[in-house]
Q: What sequence folds into this?
């Protein structure tokens, strides 16, 4: 049985269910940032996915990239570069980060992971970000 | 025409040509670490790859993961976790890092990217690492 690690609930908000992954918005308003968690029990590494799931994951990574771009555009901060990473050193359940980066963001040009404490979204900004991301991910 | 960014030659050693990517050994003896550069002109993001190239990239990422595991085993330091990342904030040509991580490595549990200066392989260790990685990647 698939169960989401509680660490994700503490750091992100549920966006929607894609065919393979649960898509979540990372609760850090400094970066448009989506986390994809494949709904596959006990998966820790990409190699734990089935041959059928791998292209699906790639499709959902591309969709998350489009959504992250849309989030940047929607707040007048278009992104310069996508960063995609599957690390899992802290939370080993398989998950993929898709982050929109700008040359003026706090961690540039380094990675966002482990850089500094998140700056949570405030009310209206959270609602807006969730709406933009969900619209962009619909049908992915 | 595809051309490798000179930054890769400065930081890594050519392993072999896979169907989609040039595979290179990152010249940092602290981590078994392979870099995959798709041989696609002007590609910067995953979305710049064709629908046919995307599953090929995923297959080569999995092969690089197996090679990184083999490299860790070969020196008696089996890895605890794979880290896979496509960042490109410094070198925008599309490339994917596949890094074998251990709980006792210098950057754990943070990312290796941007952590600290590389510790280059010395002669025999480089030859050995290249040999193990090439053997593991053959036929990928």
A:
């Amino acid at each position: 049985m698939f169960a989401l690690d509680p660490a994700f609930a503490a750091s992100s908000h549920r966006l929607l269910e894609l065919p393979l992954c649960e898509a979540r918005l990372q609760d850090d308003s400094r970066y448009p940032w989506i986390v994809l968690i494949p709904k596959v029990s006990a998966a820790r590494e990409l190699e734990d996915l089935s041959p059928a799931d791998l292209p699906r994951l790639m499709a959902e990574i591309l969709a998350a990239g489009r959504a992250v771009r849309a989030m940047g555009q929607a707040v007048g901060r278009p992104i310069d570069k996508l960063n995609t990473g599957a690390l899992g050193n802290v939370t080993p359940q398989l998950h993929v980060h898709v982050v929109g980066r700008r040359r003026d963001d706090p961690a540039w040009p380094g990675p966002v992971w482990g850089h500094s404490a998140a700056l949570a979204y405030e009310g209206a900004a959270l609602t807006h970000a969730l709406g933009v991301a969900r619209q962009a991910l619909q049908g992915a």
